[in-house]
What does this fold into?
Amino acid sequence: MPLGIDLKVLIGRNKPAPASFELMEALQSVEVTHSDQGKSGFQMTFSVGRAGAIDLRDYQLIVNPLLTPYNRVILIVIINARAEILMDGIITHQQLSPGMQVGSSTFTVTGEDISVMMDLEQKSVSHPEQQDEQIITKILSDSKYANYQLIPDVNSAPIKDRPTKQERIKTQQGTDLQYIQSLASRYDFVFYITPGPGVEQNTAYWGKPLRKKSFLPPLTVNMGSYTNVESINFQHDTLTASTVVGQVQDRKGNTIASVKFESSDREDLSNRPALKNQAFKRTTIFRETARLTLQAQAHAQAMVNNSVEKVVTASGELDTIRYGAILGLRGIVGLRGVGYTYDGFYYVKSVTHKLKKGEYKQSFTMTREGLETTTKQLQMGAGG
It folds into this structure.
């Protein structure tokens, strides 16, 4: 690894242990992808070959029990003496690529974060007279997830939806993951599992999308010795932003309410009224049914939020050594050196960590509501 950066690999079935010398010596590269929506994933590529009589029957690395599907992998990066857990996941896929030249054969294992274990078994389960957050906490406490030490971070739903048995009975149809995500969609909530805070621990978050300013150096372009971004490009798409209008009939009170949203309610994306400043904009009719009025309004607002935050997209790659930190997913990070139109704060939507001997890069995708910076100066180490 580059100077000042170490990679620690723990692997095993139930109790991951430090990877053997043979595995680490054969490891060519590691790639970890984090996204604000959906599962996170990882990929580890090893060099394989036949070195003697023991390898005549098969590549020893391929039959190594540590690389068996459904084994657990924990990847920890130590940068500037600070440990960051990049991934706590499960191996789900193997790929062998025999090379025609000596030393060119590779064996790749791919996996997903711990939430993949919640997406294996479809169920039909009733949850009578329970709040949504009670149902989620109950699912997360299932004994079959005990090995992953899930720490529930479950927020209260904005609506007290606890129907009696005479009104209706909440019923799960599908996997635990599918059901929890369907409950989240009712309130513009999200559900995901992140590694930590400790090794072998995982935090299961259910609640409003988190967008916080990160106490990290700003991404810097074309500013001499301060430069840490190796490449970056921008897209400005005025067709993504949309208003949402319509009516909804409350299933409980049997009343009709109008739904109309024009701008994002996320203040931490800064005051860029992307819709109001456009001469033309899309209009989407809200057609959802079987919701309480407040649920419908939350869902309509989510539709607007998701549309306006993609008006400007920045994609690029940075050198982790020069940056000196891990770019925080779901954070608000500053960008400088590009010019007034595209400088400013962005929401980090996805990060891909690419590690190999002597190199550590981070590819990123960031979004925001519109053009032009909203701050005159970005300070080092203070959220950009």
About this structure: Residues 119-207 form a domain with the Phage tail protein beta-alpha-beta fold fold (CATH 3.55.50).
